[in-house]
Structure formats: C-alpha cells, structure tokens
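[Help] Beginner question about ligand-bound structures

Sorry if this is basic. My supervisor gave me a protein sequence and a SMILES string for adenosine-5'-diphosphate and asked me to "get the holo structure". I don't really know what that means in practice or what format the answer should be in. Inputs are pasted below exactly as I got them.
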Amino acid sequence: MKYIIGIGGMTNGGKTTLTNKLVNAFPGCCVVHQDDFFKPQDQIPVGEDGFKQWDVMTSLDMEAMVNTVKAWLENPVKFARSHGIQVSPELEEPDSEEQTHILIVEGFLLYNYRPLIELFSHCYYIVVPYEECKRRRSTRKYTVPDPPGLFDGHVWPMYLKYRREMESSPVEVEYLDGLKTREQLFNQVYEAIRNMLNS
Ligand SMILES: Nc1ncnc2c1ncn2[C@@H]1O[C@H](COP(=O)(O)OP(=O)(O)O)[C@@H](O)[C@H]1O
Ligand SMILES: NC(=O)c1ccc[n+]([C@@H]2O[C@H](COP(=O)(O)O)[C@@H](O)[C@H]2O)c1
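Answer (accepted):
No worries, everyone starts somewhere. Holo just means with the ligand present. The predicted complex, written as structure tokens, is below.
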C-alpha cells in the first residue's frame, strides 16, 4: 500500500519541523517539499499590494510538483534511491506492491490545487494564531528576505484568502494546533499514521 500524507498549513506553523521528525520515524519514508517548487525570482510579478507575489499559487510550479509526487507513486523504491534514502531489503522485493510505502508532502499551499489534492491519503493543516505566526516569521531567513510590511501586506491576506477557498472546497483536512510542543505534535501525528497503517 502507498500512503501520501499532506502536512499543510500556514507559513511558520511548524510544518518542516514536524515533517522532519516523521521522516526519521518511518524508515524508507520519502518527502516532497513545496518550497522546492517556487519559480525563479524574475518570474514572480509585483502585485497590486506592491509586493512580489510569493504567496500565490502561480508562484509555484505545481505541475512539476504533481509530477514529482506521481514519480513516487510509480516507483517508490526507485524514488527513494534516487533521493539518497536508504531502502530496507523487504521493500526491494519484487512483490513490494504489498509493502507499505509512505510519502510526506509538506507545504503552505497544498490544498488549493485539485490535481494534488486527489493524491492525498490524509490531509493535515497546522495553524497558529496571527501574533505567533508573525513573531516566528520575523526571525526566519528565506532565500529572498522579506521586505518591510510583507507579512501584513501580502503573506497574511493571502493566507486568509487561500484558507477560505480551501474551506469552501470539498477537501477534508484535519487541523493541528501549532502551539503544541514539537513532541506533542509529533506524537499525535505519528500515532494517527500508525493507526492508519494498521487499519
Ligand atoms: N511546535 C513548535 N513550537 C514552537 N516553535 C516551533 C514549533 N515547531 C516549529 N517551531 C519553530 O517555528 C519556526 C518555523 O518552523 P518551521 O517548521 O520551519 O515552519 P514551516 O515549515 O511551517 O514554515 C522555526 O523557528 C521552528 O523552530
Ligand atoms: N523559498 C523561497 O524561494 C521563498 C522566496 C520568497 C518567499 N518565500 C516564502 O516562503 C513561504 C512559504 O514557506 P514556509 O511555509 O516554509 O514559510 C511563503 O510565505 C513565501 O513568502 C519563499
């Protein structure tokens, strides 16, 4: 069986932190980070809000991202090997179709792109309150540093827009409280995935 778990949610909710812990906990588990699919800076236009539009769907090459997820679905063992992930001998067996394979897909805009949504076995969405999100974001170093005012002028309004859009679509997400400790979040999701694998 193949399982694709989405770890979505707002910027600085703790997606990458949780994802790294989960990847370490499930041997052979693969990961796709949405951040790897940002288009080059010169292809990101400036919007009416006066900021480069990093937080909109078109800033990402979603087609390439979906193709990467489909490459994993096609052959998880080959995908793992080509990404330097150690594969246990049982997973290499010719009948590895009967084995359990897990892919974690992590990112801030996972649930607004239909071709990706339909691939998920389970969708998580981490949230923290505005003040905490802004505080964490202010200490974060991105490859392109945030210009002054970006959070309130672009990041937060786009977060609200896409969250509303997601909530009025048929996608079913399970919310995670990003104010919980790293360990609490890990334990909660780890146990839930274990239960899913055993059901
Ligand atoms: N559960 C948590 N409690 C407090 N701080 C956290 C927690 N998870 C992550 N962080 C911190 O918040 C910041 C953003 O975390 P990160 O995992 O990179 O978020 P995201 O991938 O959602 O943008 C980092 O400084 C990280 O150490
Ligand atoms: N990785 C990059 O190239 C890049 C560039 C500019 C902004 N960002 C920011 O990354 C954020 C999404 O990533 P996180 O969910 O990890 O915070 C977006 O809010 C976006 O503003 C990323």
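A couple of things worth pointing out: The CA atoms of residues 132 and 179 lie 9 Å apart. Residues 150-167 form the longest helix (18 residues). Feel free to follow up in the thread.
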